From TrEMBL:
Coiled coil regions in record: none
Descriptive protein name: Zn-dependent protease
Gene Ontology terms for molecular function: peptidase activity
Superkingdom of the source species: Bacteria
Keyword set includes Protease: yes
A biological process term (GO) from this entry: proteolysis
Keyword terms of this UniProt record: Hydrolase, Membrane, Protease, Transmembrane, Transmembrane helix
Transmembrane segments: 115-136, 143-163, 197-219
Amino acid sequence: MGFIIYFALIVLIPIWAQVKVKSAYTKYSRVASSSHMRGAEVARRILDSNGLYNVEVVETRGRLTDHYDPRSKTVRLSSENYHGHSVAAVAIAAHEVGHAIQDQQDYAALRIRHALVPVANIGSNFSWVLIMIGIFAQLSGMLLLGIIFMAAAVLFQLVTLPVEFNASNRAMDQVVSLGIIRNEEERETKKVLNAAALTYVAAAAVAVLELVRLVLIYTGMQRED
């Protein structure tokens, strides 16, 4: 019974977060912002007001594929948000510029996350191979090595949380101070940003739950030895 509850949690938590994001985004992508600025214009306005003239704003394919690329100093906005002038487009564009501002100001959590990327990639790719070998072959040492690799990936997920929340806070400060949104739009913009943040919270929660489960399996194997 406990395993069924656990399995339900790790499956349902991400699904619930995705539903919340898509629901909020769909709803507020139909609500035009009072400034009628396109997402690309919002991004450019915030970047220029912070002296980030060297950061480009470009269109990218896909839906909700928006991100900031620190290597090329580029804010990439999905077509819907690049050309759209909705509250959702404003929120997403401002959030990605929030990451550019973090990069400019050498935000500590962002630097830590960047440093963890290679380790997290290795952990994500190889941890489960080691874990499965360790569990099925009853090799506690192999399982422990897999747990260590997985812990690196989990750490990356946890460090991502303050980075994303901070970017959203910066986004709100910018769009309000520059008059890009007004009055009721503040609440609507926060709803979009909060919904987006849920995906990171859900991912981190699932990763921590899985890590704890594996640690319990490892300690059980140690007791048997």
